[in-house]
Amino acid sequence: MYKKLINYGLSLTVFCAVVASESFTAAAEDQAAVLELANDPGFTERYAGNTQVSGQFLSGLTYSTGSTQLKLDDLRLSYSRRSDEAPKLVCVRVTTDDGRYWASNMYRANTTFSSPPKIPVPTKYGEQLNAYGPQNLLMLATFSRDCSDTAGKIYVPGLAGAKTANSELVAYVNVSQSKVTATLLKGDGRVVQKVNCKKPADGPKVTYSHVCPIPLPDTAASDGYKLLVGVRGLTGTTTEQEYALHLE
């Protein structure tokens, strides 16, 4: 009986060690998930140049992280790729709030992963960008085959740090009017959250005029989400733009 207990204990120890090893390996693979730059010929960026104008309301989409210091190595996209059926190509735009820096590049996922992958930013302007904080950086990413067109594409939030249980979806909107709303909808059109967007507390920005923090639902919708941005003009007429979202 004693020998049986010893053998059982040894077997359990070996089993736990194998499981722990596999979990550690999976975690390590997730931590190492990095998107590959897919541009030809190379990384596209500008500093102290003209601000790009897209004609759309949405200029940034991220999750709040609580981070107070920006590290380019911490930039990630909030999506998982557990199979080859998941999107492989993504366009990522990075802009500073003063409009002095912007980068627009294609990335490729060559592996599967279950945690947010890193976005390499091989910038020539690291010293200048170190002067900015996470609150000064806008990220806008879409599942797409190129960065020339965002119409009809699915937007995926960025991360400048680590997402927490209390993280909100933050939409940055650039419009000339003062009354702006952001509505999170389920795929079938049902309203999840509607918020009034506010102007930045520390003054106007070049690349956005309003910030829209949106509380997230407890569970993800199976039919996806949409973001509806409404802008009310001086005549009382509201103009809306709708964006398909990938939220996890």
Number of strands: 15
Radius of gyration: 21 Å
Give the overall pLDDT as a whole number. 83
Oligomer: single chain
The SS-based structural class is alpha+beta
Q: What is the beta-strand fraction? A: 25-35%
Q: Work out the helicity level.
A: 10-25%
Please describe the biggest sheet, giving its number of strands, its sense, and whether it closes into a barrel.
10 strands, mixed
Please tally the helical runs, counting DSSP H or I stretches of 4 or more residues.
Answer: 2
Rough shape? Answer: globular
| Ends distance | 50 Å
Question: Would you kindly provide a written description of the structure presented here, covering whatever features stand out?
Answer:
By secondary structure, the chain is an alpha+beta fold. 14% of the residues lie in helices and 33% in strands. The chain has 2 helices and 15 strands. The protein has helices at 2-31, 126-129, and strands spanning 36-37, 45-47, 58-63, 75-77, 89-96, 101-108, 137-143, 154-156, 158-160, 169-173, 179-186, 191-196, 210-214, 225-232, 238-245. The strands form 3 sheets. Strands 1, 2, 5, 6, 7, 8, 11, 12, 14 and 15 form a 10-stranded mixed sheet that branches. A hairpin with a 4-residue loop joins β11 (179-186) and β12 (191-196). It is globular. The N and C termini lie far apart (50 Å).
